[in-house]
DNA sequence: TGCAGGACTGTGCACGTTCACAGTAGAGAT
DNA sequence: ATCTCTACTGTGAACGTGCACAGTCCTGCA
């Protein structure tokens, strides 16, 4: 060792947390060595590593992220960005599952999750500069509607991002993670067919969302597979809300009699449909079988409990985080489609 | 002006965002002046202010938070800390409302919200150093159980924090914001009494949570006000889950006949109670009136829809943020109790 | 004309890291 | 004994900002 003189500045500091210099002094090494240990300990002798670790423990040293960010030009955090009106998400149990999963997955990498809402135009104006100046290293983008203005911003800012669900109307390579909506719809309709139902209607989701489109497509595909002609009177569109489900079911009962099953693109709408069916004096599943989608809490709360499709939200969040971190590390974008699961309860 | 020579360093930078120096050069002023404009523009001539603002707009300058943090010793962000098993919260619609409200309220101050979970011991170990080294300026603490280990950490780290709901078993000054649980319970029981009910039971929440305690206390107080003796056979304890509500109602029906109303400390438990009542062949509200608490989505989904107590979650989050920012600015802790609202539906 | 004082402005330093570079010691080969 | 190579270590310079201090200019008063 050539230099063992204290590198600490002279004036006494009042009560600041220990810095890398304190650790270096304590361990009898230089800042550089401590820094290298912090980065993983390559090119550092075992003795030095041990000394540094001991000093870190003793002093309770924790790296100062601001200082690190300043030099590395990395934020060390990731944004969870809601780019649509918030109600849409915060009322959705899937959303909270997703948020929880992402927080946990990021936490394992010691990366803080920054929650950002950009539902309104005003919020978007406030958020854009924050994102485009690399205050986060990447974005988990939660949005389903066509024409998301945030995607352009993110691309322009050259900020890695991963979408939850397939973004509609976008072209160019883009990372996203999604459940297999089409296969989910097909599984449900198959289930209804196999239980002997003849006239299967559907209440689809908004046709500017991937879920809305894919689930309707799956419905059509499975009917076609069974040689059943597509009857557009059996198709109603809702907006995923309970009220819209009730209204849609009401319309179905009025305009398309003899319906003996309905595949509904969300549990919430399915619950609304149950109400409409009950009001019409019909019974579920005796008169009409009802299939939902999401396996949200309302599925078990509903009377009767809903047969539904479970999406692997825990795996979705895990894969989103994995993809994002890979992109931050320089990898190219990728698409991940995850399998779904049919959950049979009493409604079908 | 004494010095108009460019302060920009000589070597060309590849593609970094503009710095305060770029703005200064562009506006023909010094770093100090730009900094002062950024802080609010005191002691800066109108002409300079205008020039700086123009330069900021033209260059698309955004302050580098890492650099600012480094010198101010402030993070510029706030943590939303879940200090209990996550399921508890993520399944709770109130929680998401709270999270949304806090995000919005903080966003108005341009402060990012960092979501942190510390439900398990392992997570807590990972999170503690992060918190105690001022990587956030304050904490919105979400927890209800007695003996929260995080509170000690936060106090020791001298980090401002505001609790959601009254922390139990803690002493010393502490900020918290809560709804008036006791008054809520009293309002509900008053409502039941006024509709002519005679034997009013209750399914209370866990007695190590403030909601559990206060709502039971309100129940007792209102009965006492009406000269009704407290009958402990009419009291069952649940854990806020649907299943526990169903079980508790089951016990009530078995051991305390003639019950004609029940005040349940959460909507979820109330929904479970509805199931138990239905199974017993009784009708709501004809045979037994049911009052819930929370006005969560299940309240409207339940059959019949629940009469319940709405907590002002939007105001709670708003006040939590306000209190926290005040504390960060040096003010002392404070307690805020907000009024509740009775929502009458069909179950009572 | 001189001077005090207010209004505004510029400059040096510190904040705590990381990184590139320049060492240094020791082992082994010649 | 000298040289080369490996393995490790120390050092200076940046990163972009805020703050304290030291100006400078200008107005108004004696």
Explain what this protein looks like in three dimensions.
Chains A, B: Keywords: DNA-binding, Transcription, Transcription regulation. Chains A, B: Residues 18-72 form the HTH lacI-type domain. The structure is a homodimer of 348-residue chains. With 348 residues, the first copy, chain A, is an alpha/beta fold. Chain A has helices at residues 20-27, 31-38, 46-59, 65-72, 86-90, 93-107, 121-132, 149-156, 181-194, 210-225, 242-255, 267-279, 297-301, 313-328; strands at residues 78-82, 113-117, 138-142, 161-164, 175-179, 200-204, 235-237, 261-264, 289-291, 308-310, 335-338, 341-343. In chain A, the strands form three sheets. Chain A has a six-stranded parallel beta sheet with strand order 2-1-3-4-5-11, with helices on both faces. Chain A has a four-stranded parallel beta sheet with strand order 7-6-8-9, with helices on both faces. In chain A, helix 1 (20-27) crosses helix 3. The N and C termini of chain A lie far apart (77 Å). Mean pLDDT of chain A is 90; it is low at 1-14. At the A-B interface, helix 4, helix 6, strand 2, helix 7 and helix 13 of A face helix 4, helix 6, strand 2, helix 7 and helix 13 of B. The first copy, chain A, binds a DNA duplex (30 and 30 nucleotides) through residues 1-3, 7, 9, 16, 19-21, 29-33, 35-36, 38-39, 43-45, 48, 63-73.
